[in-house]
Amino acid sequence: MLGQKQAESEAIVANATEAELNLAKDGHDRALEDGGADESSSAFSVKSFLWHGGSAWDAWFSCASNQVAQVLLTLPYSFSQLGMTSGIIFQIFYGLLGSWTAYLISVLYIEYRTRKEKENVSFKNHVIQWFEVLDGLLGPYWKAVGLAFNCTFLLFGSVIQLIACASNIYYINDHLDKRTWTYIFGACCATTVFIPSFHNYRIWSFLGLGMTTYTAWYMAIAALVHGQAEGVTHTGPNKLVLYFTGATNILYTFGGHAVTVEIMHAMWKPQKFKYIYLMATLYVFTLTLPSATAVYWAFGDELLNHSNAFSLLPKNGFRDAAVILMLIHQVSCRRRPPPFFSGHR
Fold first, then answer.
1. What is the pTM of this model?
2. 35's torsion region: left (phi>0), alpha (psi -120 to 50) or beta?
3. Got a GO cellular component term for this one (predicted)?
4. Residue 284: how many other CB atoms lie within 10 Å
5. pLDDT tens digits for 282-294?
6. Phi-psi map region of 236: left, alpha, beta (phi>0 left; psi -120 to 50 alpha)
C-alpha cells in the first residue's frame, strides 16, 4: 500500500514537472517565431548548456561536488586520530548512512510536493526548502526547528570553510595574514547569493567535481611518491576526545543534507534522486579513501600536528595547482545561497 502511494505521488510530481518543461519549451518556440531565430537559438543553446541544469547528471554532479571539498584535506588528520581501520569504517558507515538519509528526505519531499500540487500550488518561481517540507508534513514547530538547524549549519559551516580557504592560500602567499585572506574570500563567496538556484550551478558543479578529483588523486599520488617519512609511526587512537573529533570530521563530510531538497527541486524528474545520491556517494569514496589512506600511510602520527594535508606534501607546481583549484571550488561550488535568499524568486 505504501509503495503504491509513493508511486502515485511520484507520478503526480513527474506530470507537474513535465508540464513546466512543456510550458518553457512553448515559450521558447514562440520567442523564435517572433524573429531572430538563428541568433536566439544559438544564444539559447549556449545559455542552456551553461546555466539551465535539471537532469539526473546535473543532480549527480551537484551531490558529488557538494559532499566533499575542503574536508578532503583534513581526512588524513582524522585518520591519525582514529587509526587506519576506524577511519575507513567510519567513512563507509557515514557515507551509506547519509545516502539512506537522502532517500528518506526524497520520499518526504515527493509527499510534500504532491500535496501542494493537488492544491494547485505552482513552484515555477519558488525553491522548496527543507524546513517547508517539515512545516507541510509535521507542522510549524518542526518548521522552526528545521529553519534553526539550517541557519546554524550554514553559519558555522561558512565560518569553517572561509578559515579553510585562508589557510590554503597562505601556503602560496603569506604576504597577508590569514585573517585578511578570510575577509577577502568572505567577500568573494558572498557574491554567489545572486545565483538563483541549483538549476544554475550546472557548469560550476561539473568543474567543482573535477577540481576535487584532481586534488584527491594529487594527494594520493604525491604521498605514494614521497614514501613513508623517516621514523613514521601509526599509533592510532590513544585519546577518546581525539577519536570523537576524528569521527565528527568524517561525519561532516557526508552530513551536508541542508541543501538536499534544493538539489532535488532543481531536477526535472526528482523521483530519481534517491538513486543519484547513492551513486554520488560511491564516487566520493573513490576520492576520500585513497587520498586519506595514502597520506596517513606516508606521514602517520605527524598528521596530529598538521590538520591540513597541504602542509606536509612537497611544495611544487602540482600542489599549488591543487590549492588554487580548491579555492575556486570553495568560492563557486560550496557557498550555497542561504534559505533567506533562495526561497523566492
1. 0.76
2. left
3. membrane
4. 26
5. 999 999 999 999 9
6. left
